[in-house]
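Supplementary Methods. Inverse-folding protocol.

Structures were first reduced to a C-alpha coordinate string of length 242. This string, shown here, constituted the complete conditioning input.
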Protein backbone atom coordinates (compact mmCIF):
# COMPACT_ATOMS: atom_id res chain seq x y z
CA UNK A 1 0.00 0.00 0.00
CA UNK A 2 1.35 3.44 -0.99
CA UNK A 3 0.57 6.96 0.11
CA UNK A 4 -0.57 9.90 -2.02
CA UNK A 5 2.45 12.00 -2.95
CA UNK A 6 0.38 15.18 -2.64
CA UNK A 7 -1.48 14.83 0.68
CA UNK A 8 -0.14 11.63 2.25
CA UNK A 9 -3.49 9.80 2.21
CA UNK A 10 -3.18 6.02 2.30
CA UNK A 11 -4.11 4.48 -1.07
CA UNK A 12 -5.41 1.08 -2.02
CA UNK A 13 -3.45 -1.00 -4.52
CA UNK A 14 -5.80 -0.34 -7.43
CA UNK A 15 -6.56 3.31 -6.71
CA UNK A 16 -6.10 5.58 -9.72
CA UNK A 17 -6.90 8.80 -7.87
CA UNK A 18 -6.48 9.91 -4.29
CA UNK A 19 -9.85 9.83 -2.47
CA UNK A 20 -8.82 12.84 -0.37
CA UNK A 21 -7.35 15.36 -2.82
CA UNK A 22 -8.23 13.81 -6.21
CA UNK A 23 -4.68 13.75 -7.56
CA UNK A 24 -3.75 10.98 -9.99
CA UNK A 25 -1.67 8.16 -8.51
CA UNK A 26 0.54 7.92 -11.59
CA UNK A 27 4.23 8.34 -11.05
CA UNK A 28 6.00 10.44 -13.65
CA UNK A 29 9.50 9.25 -12.78
CA UNK A 30 9.51 5.95 -14.63
CA UNK A 31 10.93 4.44 -17.85
CA UNK A 32 9.49 6.05 -20.95
CA UNK A 33 8.49 2.69 -22.41
CA UNK A 34 6.22 2.06 -19.44
CA UNK A 35 4.65 5.49 -19.80
CA UNK A 36 4.15 4.95 -23.54
CA UNK A 37 2.52 1.59 -22.91
CA UNK A 38 0.04 3.16 -20.49
CA UNK A 39 -0.82 5.88 -23.00
CA UNK A 40 -1.41 3.28 -25.72
CA UNK A 41 -3.48 1.16 -23.35
CA UNK A 42 -5.77 4.10 -22.62
CA UNK A 43 -5.96 5.23 -26.24
CA UNK A 44 -6.68 1.83 -27.76
CA UNK A 45 -8.84 0.74 -24.84
CA UNK A 46 -7.58 -2.84 -24.67
CA UNK A 47 -10.28 -3.87 -22.20
CA UNK A 48 -12.57 -4.77 -25.12
CA UNK A 49 -14.85 -1.74 -25.09
CA UNK A 50 -13.26 -0.40 -28.26
CA UNK A 51 -14.17 -3.44 -30.36
CA UNK A 52 -17.68 -3.51 -28.94
CA UNK A 53 -18.10 0.22 -29.53
CA UNK A 54 -16.70 -0.07 -33.06
CA UNK A 55 -19.22 -2.80 -33.85
CA UNK A 56 -22.09 -0.61 -32.60
CA UNK A 57 -20.69 2.40 -34.42
CA UNK A 58 -20.82 0.66 -37.80
CA UNK A 59 -23.91 -1.52 -37.41
CA UNK A 60 -26.26 0.65 -35.32
CA UNK A 61 -25.96 4.26 -36.55
CA UNK A 62 -26.70 6.82 -33.86
CA UNK A 63 -26.74 4.32 -31.00
CA UNK A 64 -23.44 5.41 -29.44
CA UNK A 65 -24.17 9.16 -29.33
CA UNK A 66 -27.69 8.45 -28.06
CA UNK A 67 -26.38 6.28 -25.21
CA UNK A 68 -23.59 8.70 -24.40
CA UNK A 69 -25.86 11.74 -24.26
CA UNK A 70 -28.41 9.81 -22.18
CA UNK A 71 -25.73 8.91 -19.62
CA UNK A 72 -25.12 5.25 -20.58
CA UNK A 73 -21.35 5.60 -21.01
CA UNK A 74 -19.50 2.94 -19.05
CA UNK A 75 -19.89 0.20 -21.66
CA UNK A 76 -18.82 2.39 -24.59
CA UNK A 77 -15.67 4.12 -25.77
CA UNK A 78 -15.97 7.89 -25.43
CA UNK A 79 -16.45 9.96 -28.60
CA UNK A 80 -13.13 11.75 -28.13
CA UNK A 81 -11.18 8.51 -27.78
CA UNK A 82 -13.03 6.91 -30.67
CA UNK A 83 -12.38 9.89 -32.93
CA UNK A 84 -8.71 10.18 -31.99
CA UNK A 85 -8.01 6.50 -32.52
CA UNK A 86 -9.77 6.16 -35.86
CA UNK A 87 -8.44 9.46 -37.19
CA UNK A 88 -4.90 8.48 -36.23
CA UNK A 89 -5.30 5.18 -38.05
CA UNK A 90 -6.81 7.02 -41.00
CA UNK A 91 -4.04 9.60 -41.25
CA UNK A 92 -1.05 7.32 -40.64
CA UNK A 93 -2.11 3.91 -41.97
CA UNK A 94 -4.06 4.95 -45.05
CA UNK A 95 -1.11 6.69 -46.78
CA UNK A 96 0.77 3.40 -46.50
CA UNK A 97 -1.92 1.28 -48.16
CA UNK A 98 -3.08 3.87 -50.69
CA UNK A 99 -0.36 4.17 -53.37
CA UNK A 100 0.22 7.59 -54.94
CA UNK A 101 -0.71 7.94 -58.58
CA UNK A 102 2.17 8.41 -61.03
CA UNK A 103 0.90 11.86 -61.90
CA UNK A 104 0.67 12.87 -58.21
CA UNK A 105 -2.90 14.02 -58.73
CA UNK A 106 -4.39 16.57 -56.31
CA UNK A 107 -6.94 13.93 -55.29
CA UNK A 108 -4.16 11.85 -53.82
CA UNK A 109 -2.84 14.77 -51.79
CA UNK A 110 -6.40 15.29 -50.61
CA UNK A 111 -6.57 11.67 -49.51
CA UNK A 112 -3.42 11.60 -47.41
CA UNK A 113 -2.85 15.18 -46.38
CA UNK A 114 -6.01 17.26 -46.49
CA UNK A 115 -7.97 15.32 -43.90
CA UNK A 116 -5.20 15.69 -41.34
CA UNK A 117 -5.33 19.47 -41.75
CA UNK A 118 -9.00 20.17 -41.85
CA UNK A 119 -11.32 17.49 -40.48
CA UNK A 120 -10.62 18.22 -36.82
CA UNK A 121 -11.68 21.83 -37.35
CA UNK A 122 -14.66 20.84 -39.49
CA UNK A 123 -16.15 18.67 -36.76
CA UNK A 124 -17.37 21.57 -34.55
CA UNK A 125 -18.67 23.31 -37.68
CA UNK A 126 -20.74 20.25 -38.53
CA UNK A 127 -22.06 20.22 -34.98
CA UNK A 128 -22.98 23.90 -35.32
CA UNK A 129 -24.95 23.14 -38.49
CA UNK A 130 -26.82 20.42 -36.61
CA UNK A 131 -27.74 23.02 -34.02
CA UNK A 132 -29.59 24.95 -36.73
CA UNK A 133 -31.91 22.00 -37.31
CA UNK A 134 -32.13 20.64 -33.76
CA UNK A 135 -32.32 23.71 -31.53
CA UNK A 136 -33.73 21.97 -28.47
CA UNK A 137 -30.54 19.92 -28.09
CA UNK A 138 -27.39 21.28 -26.50
CA UNK A 139 -24.39 22.02 -28.69
CA UNK A 140 -22.31 19.51 -26.72
CA UNK A 141 -24.76 16.78 -27.72
CA UNK A 142 -24.20 17.69 -31.35
CA UNK A 143 -20.44 17.51 -30.81
CA UNK A 144 -20.79 13.99 -29.41
CA UNK A 145 -22.89 12.94 -32.39
CA UNK A 146 -20.48 14.55 -34.85
CA UNK A 147 -17.44 12.85 -33.31
CA UNK A 148 -19.01 9.41 -33.66
CA UNK A 149 -20.31 10.25 -37.14
CA UNK A 150 -16.91 11.41 -38.38
CA UNK A 151 -15.34 8.27 -36.92
CA UNK A 152 -17.71 6.09 -38.93
CA UNK A 153 -17.11 8.15 -42.06
CA UNK A 154 -13.35 7.75 -41.65
CA UNK A 155 -13.78 3.98 -41.64
CA UNK A 156 -16.05 3.97 -44.70
CA UNK A 157 -13.98 6.45 -46.69
CA UNK A 158 -10.78 4.67 -45.69
CA UNK A 159 -12.05 1.38 -47.12
CA UNK A 160 -13.16 3.11 -50.33
CA UNK A 161 -9.80 4.77 -50.79
CA UNK A 162 -7.89 1.60 -49.97
CA UNK A 163 -9.52 -0.23 -52.88
CA UNK A 164 -9.62 2.77 -55.23
CA UNK A 165 -6.66 1.67 -57.33
CA UNK A 166 -7.85 -1.93 -57.63
CA UNK A 167 -11.42 -0.87 -58.44
CA UNK A 168 -10.15 0.48 -61.76
CA UNK A 169 -9.22 -3.08 -62.73
CA UNK A 170 -11.81 -5.22 -60.96
CA UNK A 171 -15.49 -4.61 -61.53
CA UNK A 172 -16.41 -6.34 -58.28
CA UNK A 173 -14.46 -3.82 -56.20
CA UNK A 174 -16.10 -0.97 -58.11
CA UNK A 175 -19.42 -2.44 -57.02
CA UNK A 176 -18.14 -2.59 -53.46
CA UNK A 177 -17.40 1.12 -53.61
CA UNK A 178 -20.97 1.86 -54.72
CA UNK A 179 -22.26 -0.27 -51.85
CA UNK A 180 -20.12 1.67 -49.38
CA UNK A 181 -21.35 4.96 -50.84
CA UNK A 182 -24.94 3.82 -50.40
CA UNK A 183 -24.08 2.77 -46.85
CA UNK A 184 -22.70 6.25 -46.12
CA UNK A 185 -25.89 7.92 -47.34
CA UNK A 186 -28.05 5.50 -45.36
CA UNK A 187 -25.85 6.00 -42.30
CA UNK A 188 -26.29 9.78 -42.38
CA UNK A 189 -30.07 9.44 -42.24
CA UNK A 190 -30.28 6.45 -39.91
CA UNK A 191 -27.91 7.95 -37.35
CA UNK A 192 -29.86 11.21 -37.23
CA UNK A 193 -33.13 9.28 -36.90
CA UNK A 194 -31.82 7.24 -33.97
CA UNK A 195 -29.99 9.99 -32.12
CA UNK A 196 -32.63 12.71 -32.47
CA UNK A 197 -35.73 10.45 -32.38
CA UNK A 198 -37.57 11.63 -35.47
CA UNK A 199 -39.21 9.85 -38.39
CA UNK A 200 -37.46 8.79 -41.56
CA UNK A 201 -38.90 11.68 -43.57
CA UNK A 202 -37.81 14.48 -41.23
CA UNK A 203 -34.48 12.76 -40.60
CA UNK A 204 -33.76 12.47 -44.33
CA UNK A 205 -34.64 16.11 -44.98
CA UNK A 206 -32.59 17.42 -42.08
CA UNK A 207 -29.61 15.18 -42.87
CA UNK A 208 -29.75 16.43 -46.45
CA UNK A 209 -29.99 20.02 -45.25
CA UNK A 210 -26.95 19.68 -43.00
CA UNK A 211 -25.03 17.97 -45.80
CA UNK A 212 -25.85 20.69 -48.33
CA UNK A 213 -24.67 23.37 -45.91
CA UNK A 214 -21.57 21.39 -45.00
CA UNK A 215 -20.38 20.57 -48.53
CA UNK A 216 -19.37 24.18 -49.38
CA UNK A 217 -17.40 24.36 -46.14
CA UNK A 218 -15.72 21.06 -46.98
CA UNK A 219 -14.99 22.28 -50.51
CA UNK A 220 -13.42 25.48 -49.20
CA UNK A 221 -11.22 23.47 -46.83
CA UNK A 222 -10.11 21.25 -49.72
CA UNK A 223 -9.23 24.33 -51.74
CA UNK A 224 -7.27 25.88 -48.87
CA UNK A 225 -5.42 22.65 -48.16
CA UNK A 226 -4.59 22.34 -51.85
CA UNK A 227 -3.00 25.79 -51.83
CA UNK A 228 -1.02 24.93 -48.71
CA UNK A 229 0.08 21.68 -50.32
CA UNK A 230 1.48 23.71 -53.23
CA UNK A 231 3.62 25.68 -50.81
CA UNK A 232 1.66 28.93 -50.79
CA UNK A 233 2.57 31.22 -47.94
CA UNK A 234 -0.79 32.95 -47.94
CA UNK A 235 -3.43 30.56 -49.30
CA UNK A 236 -6.31 32.67 -47.99
CA UNK A 237 -5.17 35.68 -50.03
CA UNK A 238 -4.66 33.57 -53.14
CA UNK A 239 -8.08 31.97 -52.77
CA UNK A 240 -9.71 35.41 -52.51
CA UNK A 241 -7.82 36.66 -55.53
CA UNK A 242 -8.86 33.60 -57.56
Amino acid sequence: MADCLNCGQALTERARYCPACGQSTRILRRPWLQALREVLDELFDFDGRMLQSLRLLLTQPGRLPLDYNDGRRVAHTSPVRMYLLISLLFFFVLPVIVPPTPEELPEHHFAVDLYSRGMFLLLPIYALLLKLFYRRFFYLEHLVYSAYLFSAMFVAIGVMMAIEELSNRYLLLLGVQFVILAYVLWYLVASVRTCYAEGWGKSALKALGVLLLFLPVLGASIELAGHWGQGDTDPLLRLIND
